Amino acid sequence: MKILSKIYTALIFIFLYAPIVVLIVFSFNSTKSRSVWKGFSLRWYENLFNDETILEALWVSIEVAVIAAVLSTIIGTAAAVGLKGMNKGLRSVMLTFNNIPMVNPDIVTGIAMMLLFVAIFSATGLLKPGFVTLVIAHTTFCIPYVVLSVLPKLNQMNPSIYEAAQDLGCPPFRAFFKVVLPEIMPGIITGMMMAFTLSLDDFVISYFTSGSTAQTLPMVIYSMTKRRLSPKVNALSTIMFVIVLVLLIAVNFRQIRESAKARKSVKEKA
Predict the structure, then answer these.
(1) How sure is the predictor about 145, in pLDDT bands with cuts at 50, 70 and 90?
(2) 80, 147 contact by CB (below 8 A)
(3) Taking the chain, what is the end-to-end CA distance rounded to the nearest angstrom?
(4) Count of CB atoms situated within 10 Å of the CB of 162
(5) Tens digit of pLDDT for each residue in 116-144?
């Protein structure tokens, strides 16, 4: 049974990552062929960095993702702290409301936010569809994921630590940053990483809320599918995959190192 389970797991990973491996390999293909290898070349990476449309869209996507990740992390962390302080019944109700945007279809969220922005713009002249509305929309759908990343760390934390800091004369605001924040930092980092990747990947909500002045990378790639897809997309996807992989490895390495330090500290105290 153990051998079968290992084979089954291996097949799942092959199924998941084989397309990515093929994409990476053919990003170095010297021709446009997506099935025949003609030789190693960096021409598609060179063409990619000379394509102003893709680079501009990539920069917009990164800007939106970074801003949305920071804002959603701040708001989501504050919301998680607030939920932790609620009674069990009210917390359950609020968590239900928090989970609705995650299970709600993206097209419904996108259309709803588009109608909201159009109504505000028609009434006040503010929030014209563009970069700002894109950031607001991305921040909105990223917040629930941050809340669910931070809340478990708050539940694992010993509340007596925060109370002890206050008993020793530390003001509540300072006690939060000195005691609570370091304890929940792994959850905050995980939430920020998730918000960044979700924002970078989003297409549907961006399509309805970006207007004509801010085009994200997924939108540009979608417009390219109307004709023969250039291998430049393979090169771009490879770069994005490598960047996300490096970030995930760095975060996991940090968490492993912190866990090792915690175990070592417990052993020394024992």
Answers:
(1) very high
(2) yes
(3) 40
(4) 18
(5) 998 998 888 888 888 899 999 999 999 99
